[in-house]
């Protein structure tokens, strides 16, 4: 099932490098985007185009959204699972994660998807990088897509940069700069 304008999409981890890019690209494609992240980052993610914010620190997003249904749930941080998100999906919906999942379950469930009833799992594999670049490059050039940049570090400060990323406090991307 391809994404269509007007589809409801939930992005878990909307402040990460992948999640923040997903919010922008989904909005550009016409989706209605609900974004999950800590409340202190809601303003930054709203600026990316999210229609609705869910505070990840209030309660698990799956509990906060029990009565809602989405066309897609994109777990950009791999901290949820298909089993936890399945009740949030429409019968024709799909769970997508950028992570393998517990015991590598996401690729396995994606392979089994044609045999499953109801919501499916899709596992994204970068199979057409030139097509992806052809989509993103003009958006960058036009200023439609502005990557969320948290900090920049000199290459000599790579240990500090790594420690900052590992701390879980970053939002968006951390860049290494060459002198």
Number of helices: 7
- Strand % is 15-25%
CATH class of the largest domain: Alpha Beta
Shape field: globular
Helix content: 25-40%
N-end to C-end Cα span: 45 Å
CATH topology of the largest domain: Rossmann fold
Structural class by helix and strand composition: alpha/beta
| Fourth-tier CATH superfamily name of the largest domain | NAD(P)-binding Rossmann-like Domain
Query: Low-confidence parts lasting 5 or more residues at pLDDT below 50?
Result: none
Describe the structure.
With 179 residues, this protein is an alpha/beta fold. The protein has 2 domains: 8-122, Rossmann fold (3-Layer(aba) Sandwich); 150-179, no CATH class. It is 32% helix and 25% strand. It contains 7 helices and 8 strands. It has a 6-stranded parallel β-sheet. Strand 5 (89-97), helix 5 and strand 6 form a beta-alpha-beta unit. The longest helix is centred in the C-terminal third of the chain and has 13 residues, at 129-141. The relative contact order is 0.15.
């Amino acid at each position: 099932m391809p994404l269509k304008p007007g589809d409801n999409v939930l992005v878990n981890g909307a402040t990460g490098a992948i999640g923040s890019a997903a919010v922008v690209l989904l909005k550009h494609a016409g989706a209605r985007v609900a974004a999950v992240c800590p409340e202190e980052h809601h303003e930054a993610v709203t600026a990316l185009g999210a229609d609705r914010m869910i505070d990840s620190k209030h309660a698990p997003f799956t509990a906060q959204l029990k009565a809602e249904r989405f066309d897609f749930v994109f777990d950009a941080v791999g901290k949820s699972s298909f089993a936890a998100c399945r009740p949030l999906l429409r019968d024709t919906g799909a769970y997508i994660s950028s992570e393998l999942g517990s015991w590598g379950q996401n690729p396995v469930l994606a392979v089994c998807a044609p045999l499953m009833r109801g919501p499916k799992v899709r596992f994204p594999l970068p199979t057409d990088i030139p097509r992806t670049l052809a989509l993103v490059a003009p958006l960058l050039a036009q200023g439609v897509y502005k990557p969320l940049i948290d900090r920049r570090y000199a290459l000599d400060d790579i240990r500090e940069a790594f420690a900052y990323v590992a701390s879980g406090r970053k939002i968006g991307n951390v860049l290494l700069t060459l002198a």
